[in-house]
Amino acid sequence: LSLLSELRQAVINNELRVYLQPKVATADNQVVAAEALIRWQHPEKNLVPPFRFIPFAEQTGYIREITKWMIRSLASQWHALQTHDTPFRVSVNLSTRDLMTASFPTFLEETLAQYNVPASGLCLEITESAIMDDPNFAQRTLEKLSAMGFRLSIDDFGTGYSSLAYLKRLPVNELKVDQSFVFGMIENNSDRMIVQSTIDLAHNLGLDVVAEGVETGEMYQALGELGCEEAQGYFIGKPMPIDEFLAWRKEWN
Ligand code: G
Ligand code: G
Ligand code: NA
Ligand code: MN
User: Fold this and answer.
1) Separation of 230 CA from ligand 2 center, angstroms?
2) Count of alpha carbons within 13 Å of 151, Cβ hemisphere only?
3) What is the pLDDT of residues 154-190, one digit of tens each?
4) Which ligand does the CA of 156 lie closest to?
5) Ligand 2 interacting residues, C-beta cut-off 6 A
6) How close is the Cα of 37 to the center of ligand 2, in Å?
7) At what angle do helices 104-114 and 135-147 cross, to 10 degrees?
8) In angstroms, what is the span from residue 232 Cα to ligand 2's centroid?
9) What is the CATH number of domain 3-252?
């Protein structure tokens, strides 16, 4: 069986799983959002991580079906995730193929309407390399999505080749500092400078900053001192199945 037909079968057989990883505000430790990360519960293998099938799905275009599956799953469970008084967003990773699909904004609008989910309840994470594949087209799609009320985030910031000229024009709300810089920031002065400059750049452009890969309390503390608004990483919580996430959140604060 080819990987593509296996993936198709996985969707039909309900083998894909949504995992959620918390994002907290450094100012008050409140849980403000979660990033949705896909897993494949294969009947014969252990839990298959995304790097084993997402790149392949991107090459073949099947990622569009996976993205739709993810958005439907999140929309159908969005209200169940609103367990506290504070607003809570869910982030989804998009691929370049999603941005290039003309019907994608309409799909989003219809799916959210079906489950009565506000666009502001969803954050769309796009890597800088996905944007730079076709920056002009990406810009038009992002403008459409922004006008619809979605929060837009640039993922893995600092690892690609996005020019600041494009960044300035894009209607994005947040930058995610790539975890490679966060890992190094305590021991390596260059990494710390990169993190600090990225935070300052983002703020000067009116954007919020999320740091990913926050593995220690020392990193969390340092990021808060540098003005980074949100943090995500193993120090706070790992990606978890939704039930586990809800239990984790009850314990958190
Ligand atoms: O979840 P991990 O924790 O292993 O994720 C690895 C990578 O897989 C992430 O960098 C992320 O970009 C990608 N990924 C995870 N879930 C999704 C998804 O639903 N869609 C897309 N396009 N990428 C995903
Ligand atoms: O979409 P993106 O590439 O940013 O996905 C984040 C990836 O990083 C996922 O694979 C997720 O499981 C992983 N991750 C999240 N937090 C941590 C962390 O604190 N340390 C490490 N090593 N990986 C993390
Ligand atoms: Na991401
Ligand atoms: Mn990332």
Assistant:
1) 15
2) 21
3) 998 888 776 677 788 899 999 999 999 999 999 999 9
4) 4
5) 21, 37, 93, 155-156, 179, 212-215, 233-234, 239
6) 9
7) 20
8) 8
9) 3.20.20.450
Residue extents of the structural domains in the chain: 3-252
For 69-85, letters b (16+ CB in 10 Å) and e give bbbebbbebbeebeeee
Mean per-residue pLDDT for 27-41?
A: 97
Tokens of 215: 């593995």
Virtual torsion, Cα 28, 33, 37, 42, nearest 10 deg = 100
Among 54, 98, 123, the mutation site with the greatest number of ligand 1 atoms within 8 A of its Cβ is 54
| Percent with pLDDT over 70 in the chain | 99
| Atom number of ligand 2 nearest to Cα 155 | 4
Looking at residue 242, what is its pLDDT?
98
Residue with tokens 């198709």: 8
Q: Which ligand places an atom closest to the C-alpha of 95?
A: 1
More confident residue, 1 or 216: 216
Q: What ipTM does the predicted assembly reach? A: 0.96
Q: CA 36 to CA 242: how far, in whole Å?
A: 10
Q: Tens of pLDDT along 78-113?
A: 999 999 999 999 999 999 999 999 999 999 999 999
CB of residue 239 inside a 6 A radius of ligand 1: yes
38 touches ligand 1 (CB under 6 Å) = yes
Categorize the per-residue pLDDT at 72 as very low, low, confident or very high, splitting at 50, 70 and 90: very high
Give the other-Cβ count within 10 Å of 40's Cβ.
Answer: 21
Mean pLDDT (whole number) for 207-217: 97
